[in-house]
From TrEMBL:
Name listed for the protein in its UniProt record: NADPH-dependent ferric siderophore reductase
Start and end residues of each FAD-binding FR-type domain: 3-128
PANTHER family per UniProt: FERRIC REDUCTASE, NADPH-DEPENDENT (PTHR30157), NADPH-DEPENDENT FERRIC-CHELATE REDUCTASE (PTHR30157:SF0)
Provenance organism: Streptosporangium saharense
Lineage: Bacteria, Bacillati, Actinomycetota, Actinomycetes, Streptosporangiales
InterPro entries reported for this sequence: FAD-bd_FR_type (IPR017927), FNR_nucleotide-bd (IPR039261), Riboflavin_synthase-like_b-brl (IPR017938), SIP_FAD-bd (IPR013113), SIP_fam (IPR039374), SIP_rossman_dom (IPR007037)
Length: 289
């Protein structure tokens, strides 16, 4: 471990559903790993370069990651801590199985002894103390976080979850002390997470947590903030992925400096984090992103 970076090895794998595989990590390189205590906590995962059995891990220099000269930088992806057992030294990560990309195929092929790297986790799920209903909106990529949120609910806490998955075979069950209602959404149902949210009543004690495809999350955040007028402490939205991500990143690179300059200007003018996010979203939309 180096300054919040860890290496871990695969202990075992199993399919939770036909399209979700759980990889259990452990080993001495995970010693000292400390969770944030937030149930949607996520971290950067370092995957081996093609032909390698372990990822190149950086050193931390002045707070930045610095890779050894000439070494291939690993592919980085963000994943949720589905379960962490400090006593056993085990960490579970759930992967959606799909063609292409890096992480899904790696998880399907993972065998005991395979190694990956991890960065220290953090999360954003923080319902206020007076929260009545927790409204959870997620697609399959955010299901691991939803599962942990539900499982860690205190006795009597109320939650309603809407989760988009490929079909009934992808449904999961969760043990919880809370009072929970889960509604599964499938392709062809004629509705989506934003539509569900627009039809849902929210009172002054509701806390909304939403995660999934970045464009959908942008629309959900805009609805919560600008149409419903929820204060920032009453919602959290996370964009986990984008379709055609490489093409999006290529297009973003053309306007990245301008977008970041607008956000920096907003920050320097004293705008809060949500106002800066508004500037970021507006700049992306102006660029056709």
């Amino acid at each position: 471990m180096t300054d919040g970076l860890y290496t871990a090895e695969v202990l075992r794998t199993r399919y939770v559903t036909p399209l979700m595989v759980r990889v259990t990590l452990g080993g001495p390189g995970l010693y000292g790993f400390a969770g944030s205590g937030v149930p949607d906590e996520y971290f950067k995962m370092f995957f081996p370069a093609p032909g390698r059995t372990a990822p190149t891990m950086p050193d931390v220099v002045d707070g930045r990651w610095v890779y050894p000269p000439g070494e291939p930088e690993p592919e980085l992806r963000t994943y949720t801590v589905r379960r962490y057992d400090a006593a056993a030294g085990e960490l579970d990560v759930d992967f959606v199985v799909h063609e292409g990309g890096v992480a899904g195929p790696w998880a399907v092929a993972a065998r005991p002894g395979d190694r990956v790297g991890l960065a220290a986790p953090h999360g954003v799920y923080r319902p206020p103390a007076d929260t009545g209903l927790r409204l959870l909106l997620a697609d399959a990529t955010a299901l691991p976080a939803v599962g942990r949120i539900i499982e860690e609910l205190p006795e009597g806490a109320r939650a309603t979850a809407y989760v988009e998955v490929a079909g009934p075979a992808e449904h999961q069950e969760f043990e919880t002390a809370g009072e929970v209602e889960v509604t599964w959404i499938h392709p062809g149902d004629g509705t989506g997470l934003e539509q569900v949210l627009r039809a849902h009543d929210l009172d002054a004690t509701t806390y909304v947590w939403a995660a999934g495809e970045a464009g959908v999350m942008r629309a959900i955040r805009r609805h919560l903030r600008h149409e419903r007028g929820l204060p920032a402490e009453r919602y959290a939205t996370l964009g986990y992925w984008r379709p055609a991500a490489e093409e999006w990143q290529r297009r973003f690179s053309r306007v990245a400096d301008d977008v970041r300059a607008k956000v920096a200007e907003a920050r320097s003018s004293g705008k809060d984090s949500e106002e800066c996010q508004d500037e970021f979203d507006a700049a992306l939309e102006a660029a056709g992103l």
